[in-house]
Design brief:
The protein has 250 residues and is mainly beta. It has a single domain, classed as Porin. Helices cover 14% and strands 57% of the residues. The chain has 3 helices and 10 strands; from the N terminus they run αβαβββββαββββ. It has an 8-stranded antiparallel barrel. The chain is elongated, with a radius of gyration of 22 Å. It starts with a helix and ends with a strand.
Length: 250
């Protein structure tokens, strides 16, 4: 995780240096508080091809976090974003005697490196990598101790995703912006450990699949509606003495 955070910082600093040298426009320094709510799914073809399993495509997810960024001439920005995220997947599983309900909820710590393009009218497009560390896994109904140990060993500690978002930013004042948008997150990494053959997110010690599982990847998909409040706390530019520096607003 530390190496991935360093990589995100290097990419942001490199981009910042390139754009800071290109023009004379002000390069703004920003801090944002943000949050989002939406729907999530843990995509696994074995689970979705099982005729006795009905996934809930409206399983909930939310996140809260903050971001530190640089905006070059009001158009192009880079940012490092730190979030705490919770996402889930719910299933109904049919057996010969009953219908079982299952919910897997996962909490993660996320680091995102973002590149954002904003038009003169305030519309923005953003893209970047996300590195997530799994902090907690919860099953409902609650598992017994042996099942919980198996569950904790089944998932990887870290996984990687791509982030893509669009939205609109509206100025509330000279130094404050409010942004509303939507964001998609897709995990390219399998969240299940490689040594856990035929494990599926429905494995809670109760349901036994009636079809053969081929062990494809389990990828996390999330969609969020996003609310973001941004404060412009300073800028990076050329001072009267001819040297570049950071100037903070009083």
């Amino acid at each position: 995780m530390k190496k991935k955070m360093l990589l995100a910082l290097v990419l942001i600093i490199a981009t910042s240096t390139i754009y800071a040298q290109r023009g004379s426009k002000v390069n703004w320094l920003t801090f944002s508080a943000k949050g989002g709510y939406g729907i999530s799914a843990m995509l696994n073809m074995d689970t979705y091809n099982d005729p006795n399993i009905s996934p809930n495509y409206m399983s909930g997810t939310y996140f809260m976090g903050a971001r530190l960024g640089v905006v070059f001439g009001d158009v192009i920005g880079t940012a490092l974003e730190i979030n705490s995220t919770s996402f889930s997947q719910e299933f109904n599983m049919k057996t010969s005697t009953d219908i079982l309900s299952n919910k897997t909820q996962i909490n993660t710590f996320d680091i995102i490196g973002l590149l954002r393009f904003t038009t003169e009218t305030g519309f923005y497009f953003e893209i970047g990598p996300k590195f997530s560390k799994i902090n907690k896994i919860t099953e409902t109904p609650e598992l017994n101790m042996e099942q919980q140990i198996n569950l904790d060993n089944a998932y990887k500690t870290n996984y990687n995703s791509a982030v893509l978002g669009i939205g609109i930013s509206y100025p509330l004042g000279e130094r404050v912006n409010l942004s509303l948008g939507v964001r998609a997150n897709y995990g390219f990494s399998d969240i299940i450990n490689d040594n856990q053959q035929y494990f599926a997110v429905t494995d809670d010690g109760r349901y036994v699949p009636t079809t053969f599982y081929t062990n494809p990847k389990t990828n996390v998909l999330q969609f969020h509606g996003v609310l973001e409040l941004t404060y412009f706390f300073g800028y990076f530019g050329k001072a009267n003495c001819g040297k570049y520096g950071i100037i903070l607003f009083k």
